[in-house]
Write a structure and sequence with these properties.
Layout (H helix, E strand, L loop, with lengths): L1 H28 L2 H8 L3 H7 L3 H15 L14 H23 L11 H20 L9 H17 L1 H8 L6 H19 L4
């Protein structure tokens, strides 16, 4: 029983170290040697538990996606509250993962490493929610639900991923709680204008 517990502990330690390595350096920059060093294990032990980098990254993404507390992530009823809500979720739960996705834009990734189906499902659920809100008269009919989802994704992810550009433009980054609050308020105000319906 002790051996099983130790094996599971070692496996978790390797996954944690690999997650840090991949999220910090991207898939191409990550090295098995560095992961072993971070985990405090021999390189050969990683190959005992995993079939190399592809297996590691797939398991990390699967584990990360399943660990996000989806029970508390139901979108708000009012469409004008969604952008600020998504910003908070991104900061609280998805920050490291979203930074990893920036690597995906510039690197060739192994098959299934980015959890496409799971992520597509989540993003399409945002579209579906927006269509529903449109049918309920909460969103102007002339606005394309998919483009609204893309807009909200951009506004709630970009400042989080690109601290340097955000700082150049505003003098602040989303690391600062005061700026998080200011950006969330701005998203709320912009959303209220976008979703305002004529009586």
């Amino acid at each position: 029983m002790g051996e099983i517990r130790n094996a599971e502990r070692t496996r978790k330690k390797i996954l944690k170290a690999a997650k840090e390595e991949f999220f910090e350096k991207g898939y191409n920059g990550a090295r098995i040697e560095s992961i072993a060093k971070r985990a405090g294990v021999k390189k050969q032990l990683i190959y005992h538990y995993f079939n190399g980098k592809d297996d590691l990254i797939n398991q990390i993404i699967d584990h990360f996606v399943s660990a996000v507390p989806t029970g508390n992530l139901t979108l708000p009823t009012k469409p004008e509250d969604i952008a600020a809500f998504r910003l908070k979720v991104n900061i609280d739960h998805l920050k490291d993962f979203l930074k990893y996705t920036a690597w995906e834009a510039v690197e060739k990734m192994p098959k299934d490493s980015n959890g496409d189906e799971t992520r597509k499902k989540v993003l399409h659920s945002y579209n579906t929610d927006m269509v529903k809100k449109q049918e309920e008269g909460l969103v102007p009919k002339e606005l394309d639900p998919a483009l609204i989802t893309l807009m909200m994704s951009s506004l709630t992810v970009y400042p989080l991923l690109y601290d340097n550009v955000t700082q150049m433009i505003t003098g602040h980054t989303l690391e600062e709680p005061e700026f998080q609050e200011k950006w969330a308020k701005f998203l709320q105000e912009i959303s209220e204008r976008i979703f305002r319906q004529e009586e």
